[in-house]
Amino acid sequence: MTPQLNARGDVAVLVPAAGAGVRLGPGGPKALRLLAGEPLLVHAIRRVAAAASVRQIVVAAPAADVEAVRLLLAPVAPVTVVAGGAERQESVALALAVVPADVAIVLVHDAARALTPPSLIESVAAAVRGGLPAVIPVLPVVDTIKEVGPGEVVLGTVDRSVLRSVQTPQGFRHTVLAAAHAAAGDPLTDDAGLVEKAGLPVTCVPGSDLAMKITRPLDLILAEALLHVT
Ligand code: C5P
C-alpha cells in the first residue's frame, strides 16, 4: 500500500530532477541511477514521505518524462510531478508554483542525497518552524583545504573552522523562497544563495553523514552498505 502523507503537515518538499539529458533507463541521470535495484529518486522519495510533517512532495521531471516519473513514484508515495524548466532554478520555481499558499514551509531536496534520513528532513523543517527564514544542513570540513594558483602551486592554507559542507534539504519559509525566486537574477545560484542575496539570514543546522551525495562509484558502494541504517 502506498504510504499516505500527513494531510495536516506544514511542509512541502521540492525535488528538482529535470536536468538536461535526463532519461529513464541505463546510462541515464544521477537521480535514476540504481541503488540495490531501485533508482536513487525512489530511495529519496521514500525517506521524504516518511517524514512526519510532509504534506506535499513535488518532483520536477523533464517534460518528456513526466508520465514515466509519475508511474515510477506512484507505488512509493503520493507525489505531484511537474515538467521542469531550462535551468535548475526554473525547475524549482515551477515546482514551487504548485505548492498551496497555506503550506508554511518549503524544503528543496536533491535526489542524489538518496539516503537522507527523515529525521534530518524534520530537523530542518523544525528550525524553519521555530522562526528562521532559511536553514541549511551542514557538516564541518574535515580535510585540510589549500588555495592553489597556476601550476597547482599552493598559495595558502584556508582556515577550515569557518567552512561548512552544505547538504540538502534546504528549508525556507514559503514566502521567503517565493520572494527570492521572484527576484532571482542569476540562474546558477542555489536556493539558499538567492535568500542570501535578498539579505536574509541563512542558518546552518547539523547535517547527517547519511545525506551524502551519491555520485561516484565509491558512493554507490558506501550507500549500499548504509541502506538499512536510518
Ligand atoms: O545539472 P546539475 O548537476 O546542476 O543539476 C542539479 C540538479 O538540478 C539535478 O537534480 C538536476 O536534475 C536538476 N535540474 C533540474 N532542471 C534543470 C537542470 C537541473 O531540475 N533544468
Bound molecules: cytidine-5'-monophosphate
Strand pairing plus helix content: what structural class?
alpha/beta
- Could you tell me the mean pLDDT? 93
Number of strands: 12
Strand content: 15-25%
Q: Termini, distance in Å?
A: 21 Å
Shape call: globular
List keywords for this structure.
eight-stranded mixed β-sheet; two-stranded antiparallel sheet; globular; 12 strands; 230 residues; 7 helices; alpha/beta; binds cytidine-5'-monophosphate
Task: Walk me through this protein's architecture.
This protein has 230 residues and is of the alpha/beta class. Helix content is 28%, strand content 22%. The protein has 7 helices and 12 strands. The strands form 3 sheets. Strands 1, 4, 5, 6, 7, 10, 11 and 12 form an 8-stranded mixed sheet that branches. It starts with 10 loop residues before the first strand and ends with a helix. Mean pLDDT is 93; it is low at 21-26. Cytidine-5'-monophosphate (C5P) is lined by residues 16-19, 22, 31, 60, 84-88, 91, 110-111.
